[in-house]
């Protein structure tokens, strides 16, 4: 089978494929040249990332194409209906980044709860001359044990976030219109396992009770967190978004932070990427990161090995 790997893949993953009857083509083909490349080389399978689109024109003009392996978070970069009509199999690397994304959620929670985002800004400027004052200004820190974490939406990342929260002794409240309850199994290093059941609650119940709120739902026509929700949210709560920049009304968020209605926000995604609003970037109550939730050394290796696994499974090797 002729396979175009139009995405980075590790040496370890390639080693799993090297002795197989596969013709691998390692190339980063630009979107504009992709259709011609697939046709010219009679590519039967292609591995793509989120920045590559497989649209109707490519599918209908590339008759040799049988398999698409997608490393994107979802399959919105592929015309799934046309692929199905043309008997092309589409598989996804799935939740290889779930743990990484969940850990960034907690990185922002810890940052906001312990004022680390501000300490990292202030210490280089004032640490030598104003140490005692800085120390005093950060004594409003919070512990997480016993606090309530609210989850809006449920996916593989939310699952990992919930497990971490339970492990830290937090209460977890779930709001998801597509499910009634979720049972989680926590595994420990000594081999023990514990099961927890999360009941679902209304959005309003979660907003009023959560000390920290993490967003994991798909974007809708309206903001998940807008002025209405911010008016209902528990005072001094923290809001975390590593999922999608369209979930939060950023203007309303900044106002709520400036008015001290909420304690802090942790943002990895923004409405305007790659140029977030300066009001967000300069706000001392926001812990910031540049869309790195799914980016880590471990994710890259997991993703590479998953690509190799999918190639072998889909080609029956």
TrEMBL record:
A GO molecular function held by the record: NAD binding
Protein name, entry field: 3-phosphoglycerate dehydrogenase
Family: Belongs to the D-isomer specific 2-hydroxyacid dehydrogenase family.
Segments forming domain D-isomer specific 2-hydroxyacid dehydrogenase NAD-binding: 107-293
Keywords: NAD, Oxidoreductase
Cross-referenced PANTHER family: D-ISOMER SPECIFIC 2-HYDROXYACID DEHYDROGENASE CATALYTIC DOMAIN-CONTAINING PROTEIN-RELATED, D-ISOMER SPECIFIC 2-HYDROXYACID DEHYDROGENASE FAMILY PROTEIN (AFU_ORTHOLOGUE AFUA_1G13630)
Pfam families: 2-Hacid_dh_C (PF02826)
């Amino acid at each position: 089978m002729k396979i175009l790997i139009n995405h980075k893949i590790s040496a370890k993953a390639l080693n799993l494929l090297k002795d197989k009857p596969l013709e691998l083509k390692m190339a980063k083909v630009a979107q504009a040249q992709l259709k011609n490349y697939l046709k010219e080389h009679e590519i039967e399978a292609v591995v793509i990332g989120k920045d590559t689109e497989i649209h109707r024109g490519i599918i209908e003009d590339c008759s040799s194409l049988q398999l698409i392996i997608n490393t994107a978070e979802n399959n919105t970069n592929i015309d799934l209906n046309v692929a199905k009509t043309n008997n092309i199999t589409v598989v996804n690397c799935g939740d290889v980044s779930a743990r990484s994304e969940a850990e960034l959620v907690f990185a922002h929670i810890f940052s906001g709860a312990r004022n680390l985002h501000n300490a990292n800004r202030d210490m280089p400027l004032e640490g030598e001359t104003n140490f005692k004052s800085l120390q005093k200004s950060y004594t409003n820190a919070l512990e997480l044990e016993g606090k309530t974490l609210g989850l809006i939406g449920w996916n593989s990342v939310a699952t990992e976030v919930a497990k971490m929260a339970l492990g830290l002794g937090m209460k977890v409240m779930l709001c998801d219109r597509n499910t009634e309850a979720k049972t989680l199994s926590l595994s420990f290093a000594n081999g023990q396992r514990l099961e927890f059941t999360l009941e679902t609650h209304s959005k309003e119940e979660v907003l009023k009770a959560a000390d920290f709120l993490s967003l994991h739902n798909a974007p809708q026509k309206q903001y998940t967190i807008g002025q209405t929700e911010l008016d209902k949210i528990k005072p001094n709560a923290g809001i975390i978004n590593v999922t999608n920049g369209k979930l939060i009304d950023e203007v309303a968020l900044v106002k709520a932070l400036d008015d001290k209605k909420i304690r802090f926000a942790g943002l990895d995604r923004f409405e305007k990427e790659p140029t977030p609003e300066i009001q967000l970037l300069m706000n001392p109550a926001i812990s910031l990161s540049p869309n790195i939730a799914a980016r880590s050394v471990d994710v890259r290796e997991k993703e590479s090995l998953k690509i190799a696994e999918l190639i072998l499974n889909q080609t029956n090797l």
